[in-house]
């Protein structure tokens, strides 16, 4: 199978008729000027060795070299062999808590910022697997379906925030149930759910949901962010003014991280709980090590052709033609010597 690696360089060939037209115009103007200056016999004495054919020869060599150079830069290639690559991995959903409690700044710069940064780091560690992103509060939204487009996954994570889901509160059981719907059929025992949350849960059904999901072949890992001490939840109003999330009575609401709930979910889901309190990279590596123990499934295979390049078959004659053009003198040296005194 033949192809050109860089076919855009063939546009250079359009310059050939332009260069030819410019040369003919220049040669005609030059001829007219010389005829006005002196007749041919006198001109041979005034400009000994002038050869009217050499400029044509040099220009022809240059014009012939350009197509070879264009083809060399386009790099003609022939398929050498076809390889089939099979990808193995698991389906991983990253569940990211975007409830108002994640706005708390008991960890710097905030729970939400720390969670987003860690989730993005985790994507880098899990390359090779299908990865999806679920955002949740009291309801859940599958923001990125399972994919290998990791740049898209990370862009979804970087934009995650409470403004994306209007209904507030946290329902971890709903998040687990919704995540189960995202996995592909036949991927049981080849799937994992990683919940990143402060652990606040207003429903209380999360551990039971995790146990049921684990019975269906899902491994659940939890990552806790935030401190157990009460903390306010700052927010920016539409007019730009800073305020806090407030209770029904009007006073600032407080939030407390609940690692015990996350520990219970991980235990029921067959996974492990991790506090997000130190190095995000090290924690992501530790989770990847756990995920790598899950039996991998074979994803779709892809076929690739390897190509051999043959640009040098065109580069070599181009260089030869240009060297000949360079070595040709602009005048006939032997004829010029006849007029030397």
TrEMBL record:
Q: Which Gene3D superfamilies does the record match to this protein?
A: von Willebrand factor, type A domain
Name the residues that span the membrane. 6-27, 59-78, 310-328
Q: Does the keyword Cell cycle apply?
A: no
Q: Can you give the residue ranges of the VWFA domain?
A: 91-291
Q: Does the keyword Membrane apply?
A: yes
* Entry-linked InterPro entries: Aerotolerance_reg_N, UPF0353/GerABKA_families, VWF_A, vWFA_dom_sf
The record's section on SUPFAM superfamilies has: vWA-like (SSF53300)
- UniProt superkingdom: Bacteria
Keywords for the protein's UniProt record, in alphabetical order: Cell membrane, Membrane, Transmembrane, Transmembrane helix
Q: Which PROSITE patterns does the entry mention?
A: VWFA
The protein, known as: Ca-activated chloride channel family protein
- Originating organism: Neolewinella agarilytica
């Amino acid at each position: 199978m033949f192809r050109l690696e860089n076919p855009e360089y063939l546009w250079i060939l359009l310059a050939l008729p332009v260069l030819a037209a410019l040369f003919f115009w220049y040669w005609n103007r030059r001829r007219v000027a010389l005829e006005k200056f002196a007749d041919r016999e006198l001109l041979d004495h005034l400009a000994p060795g002038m050869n009217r054919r050499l400029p044509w020869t040099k220009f022809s060599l240059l014009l012939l070299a350009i197509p070879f150079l264009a083809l060399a830069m386009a790099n003609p290639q022939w398929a050498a062999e076809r390889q089939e690559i099979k990808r193995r991995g698991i389906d991983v959903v990253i569940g990211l808590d975007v409830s108002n409690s994640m706005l708390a700044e008991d960890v710097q710069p905030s729970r939400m910022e720390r969670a987003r940064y860690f989730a993005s780091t985790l994507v880098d560690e899990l390359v090779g697997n299908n990865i999806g992103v679920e955002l949740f509060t009291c309801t859940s939204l599958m923001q990125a379906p399972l994919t290998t487009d990791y740049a898209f996954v990370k862009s979804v994570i970087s934009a995650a925030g409470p403004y994306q889901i209007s209904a507030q509160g946290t329902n971890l059981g709903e998040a687990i149930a919704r995540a189960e719907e995202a996995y592909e059929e036949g991927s049981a025992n080849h799937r994992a759910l990683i919940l990143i949350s402060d652990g606040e849960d207003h429903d209380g059904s999360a551990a039971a949901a995790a146990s049921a999901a684990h019975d269906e072949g899902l491994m659940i890992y939890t990552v806790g962010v935030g401190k157990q001490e009460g903390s306010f939840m700052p927010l920016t109003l539409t007019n730009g003014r800073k305020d806090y999330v407030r209770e029904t009575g009007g006073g600032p609401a407080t939030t407390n991280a609940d690692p015990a709930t996350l520990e219970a979910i991980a235990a029921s889901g067959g996974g492990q709980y991790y506090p997000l309190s130190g190095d995000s990279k090290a924690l992501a590596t530790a989770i990847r090590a756990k995920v790598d123990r899950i039996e991998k499934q074979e994803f779709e295979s892809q076929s690739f052709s390897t190509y051999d390049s043959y640009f040098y078959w065109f580069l070599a004659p181009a260089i030869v033609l240009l060297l000949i053009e360079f070595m040709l003198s602009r005048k006939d040296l032997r004829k010029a010597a006849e007029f030397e005194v």
